Amino acid sequence: MALISKSCEYGLRAALFIAARGDNGFVPIHDISRDLGISFHFLTKILQKLTQNGLLKSYRGPSGGIALARKAHDISLLEIVRAIEEHDIFSTCVLGLKNCGDSTPCPLHQHWARERTRIESSFGSMTLDKLSKPIANGTLRLTD
Amino acid sequence: MALISKSCEYGLRAALFIAARGDNGFVPIHDISRDLGISFHFLTKILQKLTQNGLLKSYRGPSGGIALARKAHDISLLEIVRAIEEHDIFSTCVLGLKNCGDSTPCPLHQHWARERTRIESSFGSMTLDKLSKPIANGTLRLTD
DNA sequence: ATGTTAAAAGAGTCTTTTGTCTTAATATGA
DNA sequence: TCATATTAAGACAAAAGACTCTTTTAACAT
After folding, report:
1. Which pLDDT tens digit goes with each residue over B72-95?
2. A1/B87 touch (CB, cutoff 8 Å), yes or no
3. CB of A5 under 7 A from strand D?
């Protein structure tokens, strides 16, 4: 089991890939799919979610593709995760209890609530521009 | 997407349930299943994994059931998670990259490696006896 | 207009996880 | 020995997640 779904992994990697290109032109999904090794049609649907949520913008036809809808410093990884994941991992009980919360906690609530808040703020503070610079450098990578 | 699988949630809840009973007798799986609202046959297989890993012990026939194989203070939640989850969530890359590590990190590695280590040690320090006491009290609960 | 490029949309398949059902194996007690 | 209680094991079904394929829509170029 992973923290986030495959779809979410792909969405994050694609967004970082687009941000790392630097220019403001539209990147064809086919290019992203090829370079990151992600199924084209599957990736298309994930990116659709991100455009529908106002994080990316798309353009059809020749020299069309996908681009960031806002400045890279204004898009956090948290927004991307929230747009793709249907269940909010940052507010669900680690034992799966529906009514778990501060008032009626499960045995792990006190511990897990702290951790998940920390992770949430970590994802919230990571923006596309911060992470994409070392990718453009070649210091960090998005593929195996 | 959740941090741990349903199987793992059930395994943790069942282990805490057994520990909270306090006595050393065998608890029939049917009782656990009924009280926690978990499918009997499904739970049986999860508990089998825990007995095979030496965390629980089982006994067949009348007045048989499941019991802790060791003292409650000697069983951590981390051991239970490790026995049930096939992939180790505490060592996998958050972006799903196979070779992500300190030498060839993904863009999130530095951040996520810290978080997952913290969670791992948190699960490692939580033992069944620590968490089961407030359950026996009725302060904390294992069901909705 | 027509053809080409590219995203959007939707149906369908495969795999994994979750859950159910049936049969065996083991222990107890009358 | 026989009925009963209980875990073990394995086949099967349902649901969700991951992925594929086909058709449609939009934009551009000639």
Report:
1. 999 999 999 999 998 898 999 999
2. yes
3. yes
